[in-house]
């Protein structure tokens, strides 16, 4: 029983770090660009299918892991520049545009790759189990877990110690004041939107060996990312991290002990957090 609980704990934390990759990008986009990006799961799915295609054609998962976020991030920059630039502060239009964009991307992916469910194998270096005495556990979820923690630390360092991080924090806090100090909020928002979508693409490449690719996965991942961001607090990196851990644990152990109520438990957690702290666990209360 103890080994089963430990296995499920690691599974839950690995899934939580995958959700963190998604929620981190969504949180950055909302916090800086003030865009409600409901196409975020479609960027995840795009990254997953591009990772599958490039990994097969190049013969390297690691090359795909580098190239796919760059390609998806470039698409994100184009979307922000040509579709969303004039819609800042207009939430209804943002929602409609990004929902439509998500449908278009999902349909294009279905047209190119088909509607069959696809399982993606992990890279050879991370295939197979890790033996720790009597405990046996797959290597790949541990890689995802370590990658999520490392990315959290790197992003915190980036925001705290680099000039671009200072600009991001300034635009997040007060775009008008940041503009008077010589910072260009439009440029920072553009770059941040690209980074956020690149993180979704990265999540797709990393998540494909864990979650089989299928039509509808984009909507599912968008929903999970929104739940994580709402629980953790809009625009907060730390909130996305701890919110992802909470959602991952509730989902993992809910599927183990109450499989029919797993999604209900996640929504119940979100409702409880919103009832007690409407701004999220680590969010700032809005005036």
Strand content: under 5%
Number of strands: 2
Summed up, the domain count is 1
Query: What's the shape?
Result: globular
Mean pLDDT over the full residue set: 89
Strand order of the largest sheet: 1-2
Main β sheet profile = 2 strands, antiparallel
Gap from first CA to last CA: 48 Å
Radius of gyration: 19 Å
Structural class by SSE content: mainly alpha
- Could you spell the SSE succession in H and E letters? HHHHEEHHHHHHH
Protein name: Inner-membrane translocator
Keywords: Amino-acid transport, Cell membrane, Membrane, Transmembrane, Transmembrane helix, Transport
Family: Belongs to the binding-protein-dependent transport system permease family. LivHM subfamily.
GO molecular function, one term: transmembrane transporter activity
